[in-house]
């Protein structure tokens, strides 16, 4: 009988770092805001002051805060000064935990990555590539009624990642993989917002532009889709 691996219990420091990370990336705290003192947070969260101090040092290394001796701890302008640790912090949170600015930045990254792949694929595509995209689109259509929204979101993510693979620009695929988890959260929202039929129809439109070698048509379809998604998110929060 196989033993079931227990999920590791997070340390107090990990709990602290995740909470502050979530609060910063959700927009509760904005760049330049002064955070509560180590003593205040330690008392509020029932942790030792040393744990909080070490947590803030990790957050500083992640590019989310900066520490000014004798002045306090402030939220960094992480979109300008962040690093790979900042990106890891973003993608390790659920899409629902991210503020509007962060969501927009991630979708800008997607447009840059997949937009480049779409333009490259339009120029180099083969008949086999078109047949492959049509095949996986039909597979999504045939299975969609029997899938939960999260499983369906995974299928749509993989379809769009396939654009990067077929483009021949393999590094772009690595970037798509980097934002996989947070992208799934966005796809779940997208499918609930527009419905499966609409989403599949857009896949077919992408294929049509790729088959016609219409680089700008494919790119613009992606760009306008992202803009419309963001506009609808804005309406939902008003």
Automatic annotation (TrEMBL):
InterPro entries: GntR_C (IPR011711), TF_FadR/GntR_C (IPR008920), Tscrpt_reg_HTH_GntR (IPR000524), WH-like_DNA-bd_sf (IPR036388), WH_DNA-bd_sf (IPR036390). It holds the Pfam family GntR. Keywords: DNA-binding, Transcription, Transcription regulation. It comes from the Bacteria. One of its GO terms (molecular function) is DNA-binding transcription factor activity. Residues 10-78 form the HTH gntR-type domain. The keyword Zinc does not apply. This is DNA-binding transcriptional regulator, FadR family.
């Amino acid at each position: 009988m196989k033993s079931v691996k227990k999920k590791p219990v997070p340390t107090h420091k990990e709990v602290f770092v995740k909470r502050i990370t979530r609060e910063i990336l959700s927009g509760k705290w904005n760049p330049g805001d002064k955070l509560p003192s180590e003593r205040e947070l330690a008392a509020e969260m029932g942790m030792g002051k040393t744990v909080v101090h070490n947590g803030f040092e990790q957050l500083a290394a992640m590019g989310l805060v900066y520490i000014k001796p004798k002045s306090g701890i402030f939220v960094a302008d992480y979109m300008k000064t962040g690093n790979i640790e900042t990106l890891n912090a973003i993608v390790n949170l659920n899409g629902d935990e991210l503020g509007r600015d962060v969501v927009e930045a991630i979708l800008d990254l997607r447009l840059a990555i997949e937009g480049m792949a779409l333009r490259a694929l339009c120029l180099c595509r083969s008949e086999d590539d078109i047949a492959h995209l049509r095949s996986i689109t039909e597979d999504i259509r045939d299975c969609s009624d029997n899938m939960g929204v999260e499983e369906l979101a995974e299928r749509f993510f993989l379809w769009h990642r396939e654009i990067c693979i077929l483009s021949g620009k393999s590094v772009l695929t690595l970037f798509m993989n980097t934002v996989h988890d947070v992208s799934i959260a966005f796809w779940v929202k997208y499918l609930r917002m527009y419905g499966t039929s609409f989403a599949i129809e857009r896949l077919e439109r992408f294929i049509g532009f790729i088959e016609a070698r219409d680089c700008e048509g494919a790119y613009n379809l992606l760009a306008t889709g992202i803009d419309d998604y963001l506009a609808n998110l804005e309406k939902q929060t008003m």
